[in-house]
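lol so apparently i was supposed to do this last week
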Amino acid sequence: MRAIELKNVSKIYKNGVKALAGVSLTVKQGEFIAVMGQSGSGKSTLLQIAGLLDDCTSGQIIINGNGVSRLNKNVLADIRMKSLGFVFQSFHLDTHLKAYENIMVPMLINAEYKNKSAMKERAIQLAETVGLTNRIEHYPGELSGGEQQRVAIARALANNPDFILADEPTGNLDSKNEIIIFEELKRLSISGKGVLVVSHNDAVKDYADRVLTMKDGILEHTDEK
Ligand SMILES: Nc1ncnc2c1ncn2[C@@H]1O[C@H](COP(=O)(O)OP(=O)(O)OP(=O)(O)O)[C@@H](O)[C@H]1O
Ligand SMILES: [Mg+2]
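anyway here it is w/ magnesium ion bound
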């Protein structure tokens, strides 16, 4: 099964904060899951651990059937590059690169892509799928927040990942752009990607297949919808 599975995952930071206290969650391909919860409840920690950006203290992470706990850093980086795409609140675009060049960045570090003009063509196609056809030559500073986030989504899709993980993707956007971003993420889940969004934006409930609530490091599996 293609899925991200977290089994009884706990995270205690070095300073002693217990950010996750036995979280279990499965994100399957084609599914849009939203995790909501108050500030400090552990949402970003959950996303970082599900996305192999940080280690858990105990529990298991299984991606597409493979347990990741014993894998070395290079293998983890390879899984991250090929299977996971990330979207963040503050976009994290390179301000010195044009929109299409930002979208190309993950392809440049993927040895599977070798031909630069093919990469550019793919980047332009991805820009089109997120509705940015007329903005590909723009630098991030020349784009609206919503457009920048769409560049970030296109970049997350660069290596055709199975999953998109988004941390507060509409945190810096107005309500019109919020809808555009959630609709885009919804479209991706319908096209077969597994989408995990952590957010305190209530609007996400209209798009998610399942809405879970994080409270003090515990994930409540009662569906709020
Ligand atoms: N790197 C870190 N080192 C130590 N403690 C941390 C670290 N990152 C987060 N924490 C603590 O872990 C808890 C959970 O933090 P987390 O960032 O996951 O919350 P969150 O739900 O994403 O909050 P927000 O909605 O404000 O983004 C908080 O108490 C926070 O202070
Ligand atoms: Mg957070």
